[in-house]
From TrEMBL:
Domain Prophage endopeptidase tail N-terminal: 6-90
Membrane-crossing residue ranges in chain numbering: none
InterPro entries, sorted: Prophage_tail_N (IPR044051), Tail_dom (IPR010572)
Provenance organism: Listeria fleischmannii FSL S10-1203
Annotated ranges, domain Tail spike: 99-337
Protein known as: Uncharacterized protein
Length: 351
């Protein structure tokens, strides 16, 4: 059965299907590039004594072909009934337990392939990776002396990658390769009956310096004159939010300043980000990589949205999944404009 939940002891010697799971407590929780967990409660019965005893910290949970490691096991009693509350993290995230001690000193330019190859070489955890899509080269200082999880986070932060593990194989995607457009449509009051829109400015930046292709040189420290193209991009949103400077960005593809600055404009988020939260009642199968068309006639939304949070109950409960979406402002322009108009209309009424 697709919803079967198995437990294996931490040494891999014994494995058993878990009976009498309280499926009302069962949750699969995914947060883009951040976490992927299972949690559930089990009561000890005459039918599951063996599997119940196997449920300890560092035991493995197998669900839908993926392995998770128990990181929290809370013992409880209700009357004469023993219970265990389990929280398990996807096995991919246990790469945080492995450190690449070799350090390459100095500031160097890396491809994402070279950066990850350095991190994953000679790891004893059996972790591998696959890269999907193309990425611009980036400057990194003193690469090494950090965990494999730090390397993956650097792929996200420095290269703009999206990461998702298939057991111990990490897949690293460009944005174009990660999201899978579907034929499904999210329509308010058709397959979702609640929508929450949040606007925030945590990542807002209005200024960024960009470097293009470096010239041939033996210098360790490069100045602006050592590049074919250098420029500072300033967004028009400075008038509204002031100068908020991002870390410098670089891409060796550019030798022309105008083209470099056009690219630099796409590397910052210069207006509030918009997120959506909703419950999905449709019958189509959605997943962590879904890109879905969203329609809300009353609020005027008609655009693509991309999954960033995916919380799913056990199939036996037949509960709808809870979905979260957030995209850069260029993807959510319709929502942003609608919010701005609403604010302006409210201000006029007050005046």
């Amino acid at each position: 059965m697709n919803g079967d939940v198995w437990v294996r002891d931490m040494h891999g010697l014994r494995q058993e299907i878990i009976m009498d799971v309280d499926y009302s407590t069962f949750q699969y929780e995914y947060e883009q590039n951040t976490s992927r967990n299972l949690q559930f409660t089990v009561q000890k019965t005459d039918y599951n004594a063996f599997s119940f005893d196997l449920l300890t910290t560092e035991a493995f949970i197998i669900y839908k072909g993926q392995e998770y490691v128990v990181k929290s096991c809370t013992h409880g009693m209700t009357g004469y009934i023993r219970t265990k509350e389990i929280v398990a993290h996807h096995i991919g995230f246990t790469c945080i337990d492995f450190v690449q001690r070799d350090v390459i000193t100095g500031v160097k330019v890396y491809t994402i392939q070279d950066m990850l190859a350095h991190g994953f070489k000679d790891n004893h955890g059996g972790f591998t990776y696959k890269i999907h899509g193309t990425f611009a080269k980036q400057k990194i200082e003193n690469l090494g002396g950090m965990t494999l999880m730090d390397y993956l986070q650097k792929a996200v932060d420095a290269f703009g990658a999206y990461i998702l593990a298939d057991n111990k194989t990490w897949h690293i995607y460009s944005e174009e390769e990660f999201f899978e457009p579907s034929d499904y449509v999210l329509r308010y009051l058709y397959n979702t009956d609640s929508v929450k829109v949040e606007e925030h400015t945590d990542n807002l930046k209005t200024v960024v310096k960009a470097f293009g292709k470096p010239k041939e040189t033996t210098k360790e420290v490069l100045t602006d004159n050592d590049y074919y193209a250098v420029g500072v991009y300033k967004s028009r949103e400075i008038e509204r939010y002031g100068e908020r400077e991002a870390l410098a960005v670089s891409d060796e593809r550019f030798t022309n300043q105008n083209e470099l600055l056009k690219w630099a404009a796409t590397q910052i988020i210069d207006s509030p980000e918009i997120s959506l939260e909703m419950t999905y009642y449709g019958t189509e199968t959605l997943n962590e990589r879904s890109k879905i068309w969203f329609i809300h006639e009353e609020l005027g939304y008609n655009l693509w949205v991309k999954v960033t949070r995916f919380n799913e109950s056990h199939p036996l409960t037949q509960k709808p999944p809870e979905l979260g979406f957030m995209s850069r402002p260029r993807d959510m322009l319709g929502i942003q404009q609608k919010l701005q108009r609403s604010v302006q209309e409210s201000q006029k009424k007050i005046e």
